[in-house]
Each structure stands twice: as structure tokens, then as C-alpha cells.
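Quick one: C-alpha cells for this chain, please?
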Amino acid sequence: MRGKGACHNFTLSAIKAATTRLGRCVVRALTCTLTFENAAKVTATASAKSPRQRVVMEYSGAVERLPRKVCGDGNLAFLKFYLIGLAQSEGAKIEYHEEGEWDVAPSDSRF
């Protein structure tokens, strides 16, 4: 639906377009890139409409470098924390980028 309704299918370009076009359909996106010693890279992305929304993390790149059991979902703060720990345990460097803002503060009790 254009102009009204919820944001779905979050990509960084879609987020930028939605925040410009819709004004109040605001999401926050997290992109983390883990670079391993052999230069292999894994990129993890997720987006959420609220601080406590549970979302699915999508992984791309050299995903074979990840442990067999890797966290797939959680809120953005937890996923960022998890990926920082994963990078440390696997000897990888991590770069992360967060984009977008929510209409409420993270401590807002409505979520």
C-alpha cells in the first residue's frame, strides 16, 4: 500500500524510500560485516520497526565460515551484541552500520 500501512521487506534503499515517502513508517536497519583472516566476508542484515521487535537476521557471503549453530533472530540490540561476540570468538574483524530511527525511544514501555 502506498502512502499508508506498514513497512515490509526491509532493504536499506526501501527504508530510505519509505521514510521519505511515508514519514511515519520508520525503521532501523543493522548491517554487520565480519571479515575473517583469509579475507572471507559474511554480511548480516536485519531491520525492525521498534526497539523490541524480534526480527530475522539474514546472512550472505561466505556463510560456510559461520558456526553450525548461528543465531537467526532477536531484537537488533541483541543481534548486534551476538555478532560482536561471534567476531571475537572466530577471530574476525567486525564493521557495523546502523541506519534509520524509530518514532519512540528504545526505553519506551509501549513496546
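Helices lie at 12-22, 76-90.
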